[in-house]
Amino acid sequence: MGRRIARAGLAASAALLLAACGGGTDPATIGSSGSGGGGGGKGEAGGGDVKTASLAQPNTVTLSFCHKIEYGGGGWDYALTVESLSLKDGSIVATRSTVLPNGVEPARGCPTSESGGPQHQVALAFNKDYTLVAGMKGMSRAGAWDVATGKEVGAPDPDAFSKRPKNRGVAFHPVTGRLWYDMGEHDFQSSDDVASRDPKAGLASEERVAYEKLGDLMKQDGPTATTVLATDDGDYVAAPDGGIVAGGTMNGMWLARVAAEGRVGAGDFLESIGTAGLDAPELGCQPVFWRDATTLVCDEFRQITFSADYKKVVKTEELIPANDRSNSDPVLAPDGKSFAFLSEGENGKTGLFRADFVPGGEPVKIADVEEPADAPRHMTFLLRWN
């Protein structure tokens, strides 16, 4: 359990895909035969068409599907579909699809070594209403692209004579919706500033934060800390109030406090707490989200409760029964009482499930999740519970 359901994209016909999505201008034809039993038709909210209905409707979950369109010479483009499914029956209530311009790579969620997962980082690649995806142009300039048209929003003047710092990491702030990125003044990781901007307003709205101020910034609140650390390409999840961060490695997880000083990258501001009990061999945990200030949920569907000073593990709980299924991407309900996730059985079918945070709770299946018809396989992530 806890193995990622992330399926590498295979080659697909660019002509077929572009015909399906109108060359990136039709807001979602690609996904019209996708997940659940919904197909095309009406969205729940207001009975609108799924191609124009809001992707952030309450009582829905949102998924991303991505694959490569490969062509001669070893090049490729990325095809992206975003779908929102009803938590009542799994029907599609909203969908958008596009082919991103050549040379644009989404920040996370697509089949490359840099932009696969983890799930909570993939969610930061999308703004709050899922209309924009963050990414890199030419592997060096951060930007935001419309998920319905594939066009960049707030793009810099292509005719300007200017020199900009190179960017290495980019993410959307999950609360403010601003686009955050590092400012690589050098060609290597160093004590560079970070910046944020209104994605639609472009560079005119850019605000910088000096490197030496990052410690104070990451102590403000959890969403801000997680976003800033994402620009450093780190797999971190900050506690709700900020100042405390959970991180995961191949050797296990750890807790850290945000320090006042760092030397190289945002992650250098983290000082390990040395939490007792985290080194237990049976306590595998890839952090996904915090339920509250001391309760952390792992991708292994395990919940860990820490002492108020974070110096020891107080309790661990398994969130779903022991099983041989492949489970991934737990996302927290807005009320904090339940979670949804993806699960694949031995028949190879992926289902959308939900469960409550209660001892011995049994997950309830909502619907099967069908991949869009534009390619045989996609990299798939469950992003958020709206």
Q: For the report, how would you describe the main beta sheet? A: 4 strands, antiparallel
What's the shape? globular
Please provide the count of β strands: 24
Order of helices and strands: HEEEEHEEEEEEEHHEEEEEEEEEEEEE
- Radius of gyration over alpha carbons? 20 Å
Low-confidence stretches: 1-40
| Spatial arrangement of strands, main beta sheet | 3-2-1-24
Distance between the termini: 25 Å
**What percent of residues are in strands?**
35-45%
Number of helices: 4
SSE-based structural type: mainly beta
- Fraction of residues in helices? under 10%
Question: Mean of residue pLDDT?
Answer: 85
Describe this structure as you would to a colleague:
The protein has 386 residues and is mostly beta strands. The chain has helices at residues 14-21, 119-123, 214-218, 222-230; strands spanning 60-71, 75-86, 92-99, 104-106, 132-137, 141-146, 152-153, 170-172, 179-182, 194-197, 207-209, 236-238, 244-249, 252-258, 270-272, 287-292, 295-298, 302-306, 313-318, 326-332, 338-344, 350-356, 364-368, 379-385. The strands form 6 sheets. Strands 3-2-1-24 form a 4-stranded antiparallel β-sheet. A 4-stranded antiparallel β-sheet has the order 4-5-6-7, with no helix packed on it. A hairpin with a 5-residue loop joins strand 6 and strand 7 (152-153). It is globular. Residues 32-51 are annotated as: Disordered. This is Lipoprotein.
